[in-house]
Design brief:
The protein is of the alpha/beta class. It has a single domain, classed as 4-Layer Sandwich (Metallo-beta-lactamase, Chain A), CATH 3.60.15. It has seven helices and 13 strands. The protein has a six-stranded mixed sheet. Helix 4 packs antiparallel against helix 5 and helix 6 crosses helix 7. The termini are far apart. The relative contact order is 0.15. The chain binds zinc ion (ZN). Zinc ion binds next to loops. It holds the Pfam family Lactamase_B. It comes from Rhodococcus tibetensis. This is MBL fold metallo-hydrolase.
C-alpha cells in the first residue's frame, strides 16, 4: 500500500477522535418521464459521509440531486472545518454528480477516485446522463467535472488514515469500499445494502457470485459501523451483523430463484415475500426486469 504524499502522516493519536457523519438523501419518485419498461416507484435514498477530525473533513460520495447537494454543502459549512477531499467509491452518477456544485462552493477541495473508476465514468457518462435525466428530470445535477486519479490508496483526515480497498464486484465494477481503522468503520459504497432491495439488475449471474466474495471481505474487516450507499432514512449504521447477513442471503436467494422464475413478476413476488421489510421495491422491480430480459434474450 502506498501513501498519498500530499497528506500528513500521523505521529501520534489525534486529540479529537475522527467521526463519521451520515447524510441521507431525499427518497425521490421515479421516473420523471414515462418510459416503457421503467416501472413507477421511488429511487433508494443515497448516502454521503463526512469523515471529520479536529480541523478537516473528507467527504465520501457526493450525491446527485440539486436540493440534496445544497443541503450537504450547508452541513459541511456548518462543521466549521476544512473540506480537503471528496472521494468517490464507484462510477454511478447518484454517487458523484454533486462534485460539480461542491467544487464551485469549496474551490480548494480535491476530488479523487481510483483510475479504474474514472475510466468507467468516462465510458458510461453518456448512457448514465440519459438514464438519470429520464429518472429525475430537472432535479438532477447535469454531468460535470470528473474526479482526478488518486495517487495510492490512502487518504487522511487530521492524520487518521482512510484506506481505499478495490473489491471485485458490488452493484457494478470497478468499485471500492473505504476502511477507517481508527473508528472501525467501513464505508461500503454499494457492496452492502441496509434494509433496501439490492440492485442486481446491472450485473450478470457470474458477477453476483463475485459480489458474495466482496461481502466476505467487508465481514473480515470486523467493522463496528457500516455505512451503505443506500439505506433507509431511519437506518441503523451499527446493525452490522444484520446488514451483512441480509445482503448475503438476499443475493443467494436471488441466485436461487432466478433460473426457475417464470418471468419478472414471478421473481419479484418470490423476493418480496422473502424480504417484506426491505424498502424501495422499485430496485427489485428494475433488477428483476433487467435480469429476466438478459436471461431470456440470451436463450
Ligand atoms: Zn448506488
Amino acid at each position: 500500500m502506498t501513501t498519498d504524499t500530499t497528506s500528513t502522516v500521523p505521529t501520534h493519536a489525534p486529540a479529537v477522535p475522527i467521526r463519521a457523519t451520515v447524510f441521507v438523501s431525499r427518497w425521490p419518485n421515479v421516473p420523471a418521464v414515462e418510459f416503457p419498461g421503467i416501472p413507477d416507484g421511488t429511487f433508494s435514498p443515497t448516502t454521503a459521509i463526512l469523515i471529520s477530525g479536529e480541523t478537516e473533513v473528507v467527504l465520501i460520495d457526493a450525491l446527485y440531486l440539486k436540493d440534496d447537494v445544497q443541503d450537504l454543502g450547508d452541513l459541511i459549512e456548518r462543521t466549521g472545518k476544512k473540506l480537503t477531499t471528496i472521494y468517490i467509491t464507484h462510477d454511478h452518477q447518484d454517487h458523484y454528480l454533486g462534485i460539480g456544485p461542491l467544487k464551485e462552493r469549496f474551490p480548494d477541495v480535491k476530488c479523487v477516485a481510483l483510475p479504474h473508476v474514472i475510466e468507467s465514468m468516462k465510458e458510461t457518462m453518456d448512457m448514465q446522463t440519459m438514464q438519470w435525466n429520464l429518472l429525475f428530470g430537472d432535479a438532477v445535477i447535469p454531468a460535470g467535472p470528473l474526479p482526478e486519479p488518486l495517487d495510492g490508496h490512502t487518504l487522511y483526515v487530521d492524520g487518521s488514515p482512510l484506506n481505499i480497498i478495490e473489491v471485485k464486484q458490488a452493484d457494478v465494477h470497478p468499485t471500492t469500499i473505504v476502511h477507517i481503522p481508527d473508528i472501525d468503520t467501513v464505508i461500503a459504497g454499494d457492496s452492502i445494502y441496509n434494509e433496501i432491495y439490492p440492485m442486481l439488475g446491472l450485473s450478470t449471474p457470474a458477477e453476483w457470485q463475485d459480489w458474495l466474495d466482496t461481502i466476505d471481505i467487508v465481514e473480515k474487516l470486523q467493522p463496528k459501523m457500516i455505512v451503505c450507499g443506500h439505506r433507509r432514512p431511519d437506518g441503523d449504521d451499527y446493525a452490522v451483523d444484520t446488514m451483512i447477513a441480509q445482503t448475503r442471503s438476499y443475493i443467494q436467494d436471488f441466485i436461487a430463484a432466478f433460473p426457475a422464475a417464470k418471468d419478472a413478476d414471478d421473481l419479484i413476488a418470490t423476493m418480496s415475500a422473502k424480504y417484506p421489510n426491505h424498502a424501495n421495491l422499485w430496485t427489485l422491480q428494475f433488477s428483476a426486469i433487467n435480469a429476466i430480459a438478459a436471461r431470456d434474450g440470451a436463450q
